[in-house]
Amino acid sequence: MRRSRWLAYELVASHAAAFRRLDEPTLEALGQGIASWDAVDAFSRTLAGPAWLRGQVSDGLIERGALRALVVHDPKAVRGFLIEHDSALASRVKREVRHKLATGLKHPLRQRG
């Protein structure tokens, strides 16, 4: 992930007034050009997930994003989201998120070493 992207996310997350201004169009603009799972996780954990938990963005936006990265913020909400949107979520998304909820690991076959 590019260092400048991470820095931008951290600046917005650390500035209360800037964070309060996050809405769906702004998050979508900030997320443009994400090209790796590392960048997706950083974006989701730093901006999209916390904004969702505060009610600043809709479930629909998160459904299109990286739900797995939100597990650390509010696993109960993630479980509820999985149940409520079961029929709309891709099998792979459900599998990865459930694995992350159960084990804390991103990939089922990889072990922490």
Structure commentary:
The protein has 113 residues and is an all-alpha fold. It has one domain. Helices cover 63% and strands 0% of the residues. It is built from seven helices and no strands. It has helices spanning 3-14, 16-20, 24-31, 37-53, 59-64, 75-84, 91-103. Helix 1 (3-14) packs parallel to helix 4 and helix 6 (75-84) runs antiparallel to helix 7. It starts with a helix and ends in a 10-residue tail after the last helix. The model has no long low-confidence stretch (mean pLDDT 83).
Major sheet characteristics: none
Low-confidence stretches: none
What's the end-to-end separation, in Å? 23 Å
For this entry, what is the oligomeric state of its chains? single chain
Order of helices and strands: HHHHHHH
Helix content class: 55-70%
Question: What would you call the shape?
Answer: globular
Mean pLDDT: 83
Compute the number of helices. 7
User: DSSP strand (E) fraction?
Assistant: under 5%
Q: What's the total number of strands?
A: 0
Rg, nearest Å: 14 Å
- Give the count of structural domains: 1
- What structural category arises from helix and sheet content? mainly alpha
Features:
globular, single chain, mainly alpha
Short description:
With 113 residues, the chain is an all-alpha fold. It contains 7 helices and no strands.
